[in-house]
Amino acid sequence: MRMLPIHQSLHRHSHVMGAEREPVMVSALLAMLVGVGGFSIISAVTALVFWITAIISLRAMAKSDPIMSKVWMRHIKQQAFYAAKTRVWRK
User: Fold this and answer.
1) Which of 30, 20, 29, 22 shows the shortest CA–CA distance to 68?
2) How far apart are CA 25 and CA 10, in angstroms?
3) N- or C-end of the chain: fewer Cβ atoms within 10 A?
4) Could you give the 3-state DSSP secondary structure of residue 43?
5) What span, in angstroms and rounded, lies between the C-alpha atoms of 31 and 49?
């Protein structure tokens, strides 16, 4: 049997700044929209505080599970299918 090496880059999760790529990009976009949309110093500071808080929480999520947001989205989509109660035909 021939053994082939599996390189780490082929099965490593794509993280940016220590968190998942998609939530980081969404939080950066929201922060940019709030910061630029308000045209004031207060909106810029609010956007910066939001973005720093989002990065800290997203990094904590990625530390516990590298694909936490995908697992959470799958849980939300399948929630209607797996009700936590018995059906009428179950004895």
Assistant:
1) 20
2) 22
3) N
4) helix
5) 9
How confident is the model over 80-90, as pLDDT tens digits? 666 666 667 66
**What six digits make up the tokens of 17?**
């700044």
If you ran DSSP here, which 8-state letter would residue 30 be given? H
Neighbouring CB atoms inside 10 A of 40's CB total: 10
Token pair listed for 91: 């004895």
Of the candidates 49, 18, 56, the residue with the CA atom closest to the CA atom of residue 31: 49
Single-letter code of the amino acid located at 59: R
pLDDT tens per residue, range 21-78: 999 999 999 999 999 998 899 999 999 999 999 999 999 999 998 888 888 888 888 7
Q: How far apart are CA 64 and CA 44, in angstroms?
A: 31
The DSSP element (H or E) to which 90 belongs, if any, is none
Residue 68's nearest CA partner among 29, 18, 30 is 18
